[in-house]
Protein backbone atom coordinates (compact mmCIF):
# COMPACT_ATOMS: atom_id res chain seq x y z
CA UNK A 1 0.00 0.00 0.00
CA UNK A 2 1.72 3.14 -1.24
CA UNK A 3 -0.29 5.42 1.08
CA UNK A 4 1.01 3.49 4.11
CA UNK A 5 4.62 3.88 2.99
CA UNK A 6 4.06 7.58 2.32
CA UNK A 7 2.49 8.11 5.72
CA UNK A 8 5.34 6.27 7.47
CA UNK A 9 7.87 8.50 5.68
CA UNK A 10 5.93 11.62 6.70
CA UNK A 11 5.71 10.45 10.32
CA UNK A 12 9.44 9.83 10.36
CA UNK A 13 10.14 13.27 8.87
CA UNK A 14 7.90 14.87 11.52
CA UNK A 15 9.73 12.97 14.25
CA UNK A 16 6.64 10.92 15.12
CA UNK A 17 6.64 7.26 16.07
CA UNK A 18 5.01 4.98 13.50
CA UNK A 19 2.66 3.94 16.30
CA UNK A 20 1.13 7.43 16.03
CA UNK A 21 -0.03 6.65 12.48
CA UNK A 22 -3.70 5.75 12.21
CA UNK A 23 -5.42 4.27 9.18
CA UNK A 24 -8.97 5.29 8.44
CA UNK A 25 -11.01 3.82 5.60
CA UNK A 26 -12.98 7.05 5.32
CA UNK A 27 -9.96 8.46 3.46
CA UNK A 28 -9.87 5.63 0.92
CA UNK A 29 -10.09 6.68 -2.73
CA UNK A 30 -13.46 6.72 -4.44
CA UNK A 31 -14.24 3.45 -6.18
CA UNK A 32 -14.83 4.05 -9.85
CA UNK A 33 -16.20 0.53 -10.21
CA UNK A 34 -16.37 -0.67 -13.81
CA UNK A 35 -14.44 2.47 -14.82
CA UNK A 36 -11.49 1.70 -12.53
CA UNK A 37 -8.19 2.12 -14.34
CA UNK A 38 -9.80 3.49 -17.51
CA UNK A 39 -9.19 6.89 -19.08
CA UNK A 40 -12.17 9.07 -19.97
CA UNK A 41 -11.43 8.29 -23.63
CA UNK A 42 -11.76 4.55 -22.90
CA UNK A 43 -14.97 5.16 -20.95
CA UNK A 44 -16.37 7.20 -23.85
CA UNK A 45 -15.65 4.32 -26.23
CA UNK A 46 -17.04 1.57 -24.00
CA UNK A 47 -19.87 3.37 -22.18
CA UNK A 48 -20.79 6.58 -24.01
CA UNK A 49 -24.24 6.84 -22.39
CA UNK A 50 -22.76 6.50 -18.90
CA UNK A 51 -20.16 9.13 -19.70
CA UNK A 52 -22.96 11.49 -20.80
CA UNK A 53 -24.68 10.89 -17.45
CA UNK A 54 -21.41 11.60 -15.65
CA UNK A 55 -20.91 14.83 -17.61
CA UNK A 56 -24.44 15.96 -16.68
CA UNK A 57 -23.84 15.61 -12.93
CA UNK A 58 -20.37 14.29 -12.09
CA UNK A 59 -20.83 14.70 -8.33
CA UNK A 60 -23.96 12.53 -8.16
CA UNK A 61 -23.13 10.00 -10.90
CA UNK A 62 -22.29 6.48 -9.70
CA UNK A 63 -20.35 4.23 -12.10
CA UNK A 64 -21.52 0.61 -12.23
CA UNK A 65 -20.14 -1.21 -9.14
CA UNK A 66 -18.64 2.09 -7.97
CA UNK A 67 -19.22 5.06 -5.73
CA UNK A 68 -20.18 8.65 -6.49
CA UNK A 69 -18.40 11.72 -5.22
CA UNK A 70 -21.61 12.45 -3.33
CA UNK A 71 -21.48 9.07 -1.55
CA UNK A 72 -17.81 9.57 -0.71
CA UNK A 73 -18.56 13.02 0.68
CA UNK A 74 -20.69 11.44 3.42
CA UNK A 75 -17.78 9.39 4.78
CA UNK A 76 -15.28 12.23 4.33
CA UNK A 77 -17.59 14.66 6.16
CA UNK A 78 -17.83 12.11 8.98
CA UNK A 79 -14.02 11.90 9.06
CA UNK A 80 -13.71 15.70 9.22
CA UNK A 81 -16.29 16.00 11.99
CA UNK A 82 -14.23 13.65 14.16
CA UNK A 83 -10.93 15.52 13.84
CA UNK A 84 -9.71 16.88 17.17
CA UNK A 85 -6.14 17.89 16.27
CA UNK A 86 -3.92 18.86 13.36
CA UNK A 87 -3.98 15.91 11.00
CA UNK A 88 -2.01 14.62 8.03
CA UNK A 89 -4.21 12.73 5.59
CA UNK A 90 -2.56 10.74 2.82
CA UNK A 91 -5.19 10.12 0.20
CA UNK A 92 -6.01 10.25 -3.50
CA UNK A 93 -7.27 12.88 -5.93
CA UNK A 94 -10.96 11.94 -5.70
CA UNK A 95 -10.97 12.43 -1.93
CA UNK A 96 -9.07 15.72 -2.28
CA UNK A 97 -11.81 16.89 -4.67
CA UNK A 98 -14.41 15.92 -2.06
CA UNK A 99 -12.45 17.79 0.63
CA UNK A 100 -12.34 20.85 -1.61
CA UNK A 101 -16.11 20.68 -2.07
CA UNK A 102 -16.80 20.25 1.65
CA UNK A 103 -14.31 22.72 3.06
CA UNK A 104 -14.51 25.52 0.53
CA UNK A 105 -18.23 25.27 -0.09
CA UNK A 106 -17.34 25.31 -3.77
CA UNK A 107 -19.75 24.12 -6.39
CA UNK A 108 -19.55 20.32 -6.39
CA UNK A 109 -19.32 20.23 -10.19
CA UNK A 110 -16.29 22.54 -10.04
CA UNK A 111 -14.68 20.30 -7.43
CA UNK A 112 -14.91 17.20 -9.65
CA UNK A 113 -13.00 19.04 -12.40
CA UNK A 114 -9.99 19.97 -10.26
CA UNK A 115 -6.64 18.77 -11.53
CA UNK A 116 -4.84 17.38 -8.49
CA UNK A 117 -1.02 17.33 -8.66
CA UNK A 118 0.54 14.00 -7.71
CA UNK A 119 3.76 15.37 -6.25
CA UNK A 120 2.51 18.03 -3.86
CA UNK A 121 1.09 18.37 -0.41
CA UNK A 122 -2.15 20.25 0.01
CA UNK A 123 -2.34 22.08 3.32
CA UNK A 124 -5.66 23.45 4.51
CA UNK A 125 -5.29 26.08 7.22
CA UNK A 126 -7.87 27.49 9.56
CA UNK A 127 -11.51 28.19 9.10
CA UNK A 128 -10.85 30.48 6.14
CA UNK A 129 -9.85 27.36 4.18
CA UNK A 130 -6.64 28.65 2.68
CA UNK A 131 -5.36 25.97 0.33
CA UNK A 132 -1.58 25.84 -0.03
CA UNK A 133 0.18 23.52 -2.48
CA UNK A 134 3.68 22.51 -1.38
CA UNK A 135 5.91 20.87 -3.98
CA UNK A 136 7.75 17.88 -2.53
CA UNK A 137 9.22 16.11 -5.53
CA UNK A 138 10.63 16.72 -8.96
CA UNK A 139 10.36 13.04 -9.95
CA UNK A 140 7.72 13.77 -12.57
CA UNK A 141 10.10 16.08 -14.42
CA UNK A 142 12.78 13.40 -14.51
CA UNK A 143 10.68 10.64 -16.05
What overall geometry do the principal axes of the alpha carbons give?
globular
Mean pLDDT: 84
Q: What string, H for helix and E for strand, traces the elements in order? A: HHHHHHEEH
Radius of gyration: 16 Å
**Number of structural units classed as domains:** 1
Number of strands: 2
Q: Regarding quaternary structure, how should these chains be classified?
A: single chain
Strand order of the largest sheet: 1-2
Which blocks of ≥5 consecutive residues have pLDDT under 50?
139-143
Share of β-strand residues: 5-15%
Secondary-structure-derived class = mainly alpha
Largest sheet: 2 strands, antiparallel
Distinct helical segment count: 7
Describe this structure in words.
Strand 1 and strand 2 form a beta hairpin. The protein is built from 7 helices and 2 strands, in the order H-H-H-H-H-H-E-E-H. The chain starts with a helix and ends with a helix. With 143 residues, it is mainly alpha-helical. The radius of gyration is 16 Å and the shape is globular. The chain has one domain. A two-stranded antiparallel ribbon has the order 1-2. The chain has helices at residues 2-13, 40-46, 48-56, 69-81, 93-104, 108-112, 139-142, and strands at residues 120-125, 130-135.
Amino acid sequence: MLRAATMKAIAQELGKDEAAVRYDDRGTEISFGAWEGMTLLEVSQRSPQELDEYETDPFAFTPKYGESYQQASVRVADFLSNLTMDTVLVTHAGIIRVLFSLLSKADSREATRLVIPQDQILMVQGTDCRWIWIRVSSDLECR
